[in-house]
Amino acid sequence: MGRLHYKKRYDSGGRRLWTVGFHFGDWLSLDSSNPDSPFGGTDKDFIASAYYSYSTYIVAKAAKVLGREAEAAYYERISKEVKVAIQEEFFTITGRLAIDTQTAYAVALFMDLVPKCYIDKVVEALRKRLKADRNHLKTGFVGTPYLNHVLTYHGCNDLAYTLLLNDDYPSWLYAVKLGATTIWERWNSILPDGTISDTGMNSLNHYAYGAIVEWMYRCMAGINPVEEAPGFQRVALVPQPDNRLKWVKATVETASGTYRSGWEIDKEGRLEFTFDIPFNASACIRLPHARLKDLEINGVTWEFTDITGEQLEEEVLLELLSGSYSISYSPTKSYLRIFSTKTPLIELLHHDEAAPLIRTMMSEQVKVNPDDLGASMGNSSLRDLAAFYSLPTHILDQMDERLSQIK
User: Which residues contact 89 (CB under 8 A, 6 or more apart)?
Assistant: First the structure.
């Protein structure tokens, strides 16, 4: 009876799409056509159907673990049928997602709804959407938990860090700069002058946008449980450094013990990772832009250890057992922060040494205050703006030379 009720109520017209009932949708996102509406701009039927597919997929996995094969097969079939219905309804025949919002792209990619052959196309569409949104958040309660995960997983870790480190509205650090010690219900529950927004529903201790912390643990520090080893008996440690931070450290208390993961970029550009793996546990380590033969592990080169390692293109995979480890190497890709005229203008204006150079050059060459541009076009670079302001190539080349000397 439970199954029958479930299907009758939500399978609208037998199409396997969830198109009935009230939905909050991407609540409090910033992409609605009506700025006064708390409902987001992402189609609610798409969101509801996506969760229909994703939820039944999770139930199928749980049933399989419990040995209930009939239920596992039943819910897996429903999940696949809903996924097909979503693809037929919301994707064009050439793989374009018909809903052009950050949340739609994040949900589609995170919940595995994109046809495999079009994943790269959808990822590129998400990058374009973010660029049009000045690389700032537009997501609400639905899209925010998934956006940074999707970006990192699909090779856009630079954008994920940009969203984390933005400090103007809308961003997490906008609130921090205003003294926040909790997560707010809205991106601007408090206005720049310190007053409470008149929009209503301005809880200053809300859960939704705090989901970014999961990305910080899973992607920045790289601590991830392994599904086949419940209770953190084994983890995948996949840290993702970015040169806009000098170091990261994270600790997770689990049923199997305490895991620690950290990384640091030194002045010469070497990467140093530190890991603690608890007793009777193990970890698979994935090190970025590394060469196996160059690794130093606890002060000894890898070849003189008994640690299992594998070179996988630009990454190194290591199998580590319980213990504490310090691993360092010179990466094949530079992690030093090198400025140029291709660097986003907003980054240059936030740097103590780069900002005076940019302000002087802009005021002399085009008589424009770069701070005004930073507010509206900050994610564009000087090279992007050159055509609009007739910046001579030789001036840009000279600026590249001066910027490259800043460390």
Answer: 15, 17, 46, 49
Strand 234-237 relative to strand 271-287: parallel, antiparallel, unpaired?
A: parallel
Q: How far apart are CA 347 and CA 336, in angstroms?
A: 15
**34's tokens:** 């009506």
Q: What pLDDT, in 10s, does the model give residues 65-82?
A: 999 999 999 999 999 999
Q: How far apart are CA 223 and CA 155, in angstroms?
A: 18
Structure tokens at 223: 């601590």
Q: Helix, strand or coil for residue 306?
A: coil
pLDDT digits (tens, 9 = 90+) for 71-117: 999 999 999 999 999 999 999 999 999 999 999 999 999 999 999 99
In order of 17, 19, 53, 98, 398, the CA distances from 56 in angstroms are: 13, 16, 6, 24, 58
Of the candidates 41, 1, 51, the residue with the CA atom closest to the CA atom of residue 21:
51
Strand blocks (E) in 204-314: 223-225, 234-237, 247-254, 257-265, 271-287, 296-297, 300-301, 308-312
DSSP states of 162-198 as a string? HHHH--SSSSHHHHHHTT-SS--SSTTSB-TTSPBPT
Dihedral sign (CA 291, 292, 293, 297): positive
